[in-house]
Amino acid sequence: MIVELNGRYELSEAIPRNLCTDCGLSRTRQPQRCGKACQFIHPNYSKLEIQVHGRERDSAHGDELFFGPYIKMHQAWAKVPTDGAQWSGLTTKLAEKLLDSDKVEAILTVTSDPLDIWRPVPTLITSVEQLKRARGMRMGYAPLLALLEPAYAQGIRRIAVIGIPCQVYALRSIETELEFERILVIGTPCSDNTTTENFHRFLARLTDHPEDVTYLEFRTDYKVELRFKDGRQSEIPFLKLPLSDLPNDFFPLTCRTCVDYTNVLSDITIGYMAGDGEQWVIVRNSRGDEIFDLLRSEAHVKSLTSRGRRFGAVKGFIGNVERAAGGLPVRKMPDWLRPLMAWLQPIIGPRGLEFARARIEMKAAESVLHLRMQSPKRSKYMLPDFIWKLVAPYGIQPDSKTEVLQDDFDRAAEKHDSRA
Questions:
Q1: Which whole number is the average pLDDT over 304-322?
Q2: What's the pLDDT tens digit per position in 110-145?
Q3: Which of 271, 239, 270 is nearest to 348 (CA)?
Q4: Spatial separation of the C-alpha atoms in residues 31 and 16, rounded to whole Å
Q5: What is the DSSP letter of 269?
Q6: Dihedral (Cα; 329, 333, 336, 337), 10-degree rounding
Q7: Euclidean distance between CA atoms 333 and 336, whole angstroms
Q8: Could you give the dihedral angle defined by the CA atoms of residues 351, 215, 160 and 192, in that order, rounded to the nearest 10 degrees?
Q9: Could you give the percent of the chain with pLDDT greater than 90?
């Protein structure tokens, strides 16, 4: 049951499930839909890509193997950046335009908990003024889709959803059952998630005053940027982060086995990985193009760039993951070498599109290796065919006995269903 109190919603408890990021479906009147809608049970990206975009990704075309179906990609920055936004505020501006143009009646997104700016709270927004509360980043799980039912009950028929990949996959899986006249999806890439409590512990490792941090971002120049209440800013090179000191369960198995980093089932994806210091926009279909047209006059738009080589970085990452997945300690770089490598990394490391490709290959390899070690029976269900294509250059191949290509598995299942 979902109860509205002063514009906020009291949600029922989530049904405990293995490998769950609490997208919100288990809190609805039909929690059994999780069985067919969950990305972490038996995802079918080929089917949903056709449903959403009219075709599945073409692995031989451009960068679709890495980023999923798209019709164009841009590097962009708002001409007048939005105060309090994570980057320049393109996502917020899009939401504003959608409401102002009456293309949608509400935006389903997250805002901050009144007692914790980092804790995401699902929120149904119906006015531009309310969107101020949605600016910036949060860390933690947010049962976003639980508000679809109350939105419809309020008479809302045209809605935009701003979500991360696991939320969007579940939404697309049940979309044909919903009775909304229009659902537009603005997706954000997900660069790993954790609980809000774990995130606070991470902040405490970065600064002596974690309670004063108002902003955190992993940038494409291989630095983490922190901003504080008093206006101070701090930059920490990736190589100086205490990542190897984090507990093994800091990132849940769901995030370590996610096969959709770039939100391929959204109409438009707005992130940063290929932006090389600006925002990265992936227009995936005609709806996404229609949405992006609302922004063209307010954004500097230019072509993406690419430089550096990713192979060495990805290969090194795979070696560390193999050790971590096997329960062995991750090799730490000697302290004397860190300053030199932190200086070199932005110069010789992959940037722009090559940076994004590297992250996608890293995540693909991470998914395979962690599933093999921690949940091997799920490998043949949770790893789409494109994952094996991504990891093949690094010598990772499916086990012919236990890890059949999922496309083959899906075709066999469909054949069986047709006979039944």
A1: 93
A2: 999 999 999 999 999 999 999 999 999 999 999 999
A3: 239
A4: 11
A5: E
A6: 170
A7: 8
A8: 60
A9: 73
Cβ atoms < 10 Å from Cβ of 162: 24
Residues linked to residue 122 through DSSP beta bridges, in sequence order: 110
Whether the predicted pLDDT of 12 surpasses 80: no
Q: How many CB atoms are closer than 10 A to CB 217?
A: 16
Report pLDDT for 324: 73
Report the mean per-residue pLDDT for the chain: 88
Distance CA 178, CA 175 (A): 5
CA atoms within 13 A on the CB side of 115: 1
List, in order, residues 6 or more apart from 236 with CB less than 8 Å away: 206, 223, 224, 226
What pLDDT shows up at residue 197?
A: 94
Handedness of CA 225, 360, 306, 349 (dihedral sign): positive
Rg (CA), the chain: 21
pLDDT above 50: residue 4: no
CA nearest 239: which of 328, 345, 325, 315? Answer: 345
DSSP summary character for residue 304: -
Look at residue 325 in the predicted model and tell me its pLDDT: 65
Q: Is there a contact between 270 and 186 (Cβ–Cβ < 8 Å)?
A: yes
Distance separating the N- and C-terminal Cα atoms of the chain: 37
d(CA 82, CA 186) in angstroms, rounded, equals 18
Q: Who wins on pLDDT, 406 or 135?
A: 135
* Six token digits for residue 212: 């004063």
What is the three-class DSSP state of 325? Answer: helix
* Tokens (6 digits) for 143: 């049962």
Largest Cα–Cα distance of the chain, in whole Å? 67
Q: What is this structure's pTM?
A: 0.90
